[in-house]
Design a protein that fits this description.
Elements: H1 2-22, H2 40-50, H3 52-56, E1 74-77, E2 80-83, H4 100-109, H5 124-127, H6 132-142, H7 165-174, H8 187-199, H9 203-206, E3 224-225, E4 232-233, H10 245-254, H11 267-274, H12 279-291
Antiparallel strand pairs: 1-2, 3-4
Helix pairs in contact: 2-6, 8-12, 10-11, 10-12
Protein name: Diacylglycerol kinase
Signal peptide: 1-21
GO molecular function: electron transfer activity; heme binding; kinase activity; metal ion binding
Length: 296
């Protein structure tokens, strides 16, 4: 019995050590941004494409107040409710004290400046597809925004999801930063894929998830339940979205559908962001959506 007890104890210790090693945060290589300098104008375009304000502006913000990234919006999920943090340049309550690497590790690896895992409510596996130059430009632009001293609110998450180390295990099972749509793409389709799959992270809402909350890429953009519990997020593959490329561009510009309906819910700020981009980018997204495999 003593030998059995010692064997079980040793196995538990080895298992715990292996889990701790496998689930440790993995930051970006230190030289990821070597030789790159940021550009504010390009960074503003990246800011709109990535939709930072859509999540991080204060609840109900309008007009110029949308650029005050004080946080506070609530995002319900099957695992609890996530509260968007303050990412304004405030040095105490926001990210004003962050370095470029701090922001990049958060965006592309889900790792905090303190070395902890961020929850995947931050779509870092989408942002992981972003080019280093775009990350540098975004960092440069974020520094120009108004600081705000509103403290970030804690997420409303119960046990065991409150154990952040478990997110490391989730990452092991769901860390896929490859582009989903592959094959021979035109220049416009490639640009549209980059916007849709990386910066605009369309798949995070429009793709169904598995039991652990990972994206089911076999049904890419095929629609999903609304995390709020109210209705569904639509299928935007060619099996369901039969609009022409021009009609898609118009929707991403004005919010109006070919049937003269209009966008609602969280799609409203998405369209506001898309409308800030060059029309060629919206046309590229439309071309990409026509290339996505149809899923019934």
């Amino acid at each position: 019995m003593r030998r059995l007890f010692l064997f079980i104890l040793a196995a538990a210790v080895v298992g715990a050590a292996a889990f701790w090693a496998l689930t440790r945060p993995a930051p970006l290589p230190a030289d990821t941004f070597a030789g790159l300098t940021g550009d504010v104008v390009r960074g503003e375009a990246v800011f709109h494409a990535t939709g930072c304000a859509s999540c991080h502006m204060a609840p109900g913000a309008t007009g110029e107040a949308k650029l005050v990234l004080a946080g506070g919006q609530a995002f319900p999920s099957d695992f609890g409710t996530f509260l968007a943090p303050n990412i304004s340049p405030d040095p105490q309550q926001g990210i004003g004290g962050w370095s470029l690497m701090d922001l990049a590790n958060a965006l592309q690896r889900g790792v905090s400046p303190g070395g902890a895992h961020y929850y995947p409510a931050l779509p870092y596996w989408s942002y992981a597809r972003m080019q280093p130059q775009d990350v540098v430009d975004l960092y440069t632009f974020l520094q120009t925004l108004p600081p705000d001293a509103t403290p970030s609110q804690p997420h409303q998450i119960g046990f065991p999801f409150s154990i952040r180390r478990l997110v490391g295990g989730w990452k092991l099972l769901n860390s896929d930063s490859d582009f989903v749509v592959q094959g021979d793409l035109t220049e416009a389709e490639t640009r549209g894929r980059y916007i849709a799959e990386a910066m605009a992270h369309c798949g995070e809402c429009h793709t169904p998830r598995n039991a652990l909350g990972g994206l089911d890429t076999s049904r890419w953009l095929a629609g999903a339940p609304n995390p709020s519990g109210q209705g569904t997020i639509p299928n935007i593959t060619p099996a369901k979205l039969t609009w022409s490329e021009g009609e898609i561009v118009e929707y991403l510009t004005s919010g109006f559908t070919p049937d003269y309906d209009s966008a609602g819910g969280h799609m409203v700020p998405v369209i506001e962001n898309m409308a800030q981009l060059p029309e060629s980018d919206r046309a590229a997204v439309a071309a990409y959506l026509k290339k996505v495999p149809g899923v019934e």
